[in-house]
């Protein structure tokens, strides 16, 4: 099988549990470290799938790699190469496919419940799961591109995930490991403190309370989703 290409935009926002899952399935993958100015591929056709992770920047920022990455997303969509986006990655997918990315009314940081939309497409991705505790870290959100099906919502953000065929975009994070949560809290403690007035922001002590248990259940959701996503990979 061809490798999956995973794009990273910040050193501590890597593939996390997704990397562990792919390794367990013996599915090859390679990491493009955009944060270290590694060059983007000129075409996505050499890969079986395309994954985009999270990051603190906005898709509306004037960054030198965004236009080329949006082109790769559109190329993947045109050639039915499965796309998977997490947070910033979901926003990049949304923008590439014609939707708007804009400031959410409430910043979300920490653990928060999301509900699975009641439709057949959502059931395909999430099985019997109706609610789960996801991990959030975002101030922006997206509209759904044309032809997309709504999959998830939270109290403070109505568009938490969408899909079009094999392509799946998240606003929330399902890829978290215990170590990632701890690292994010360490690296971004000031942001949490400065955003304490938002009803969607947890304080660090609460985020880390019973952390292994939260991550355990989130990874059960992620395994369900990733198992469905890899079915569409190009061989």
Give a description of the structure.
The chain has one domain (4-232): 3-Layer(aba) Sandwich (Rossmann fold), CATH 3.40.50.880. 32% of the residues lie in helices and 26% in strands. The protein has eight helices and nine strands. The chain has 235 residues and is an alpha/beta fold.
Topology order in helix (H) and strand (E) letters: EHEEHEHEHEEEEHHHH
By CATH, the architecture is named 3-Layer(aba) Sandwich
CATH superfamily: Class I glutamine amidotransferase (GATase) domain
CATH topology: Rossmann fold
Q: What is the average per-residue confidence, as pLDDT, rounded to a whole number? A: 97
Using only C-alpha atoms, the radius of gyration works out to 16 Å
Q: What is the beta-strand fraction? A: 25-35%
Shape: globular
Instruction: Characterize the main sheet.
Output: 9 strands, mixed
Termini Cα gap = 5 Å
Report strand order across the widest sheet: 2-1-3-4-9-8-7-5-6
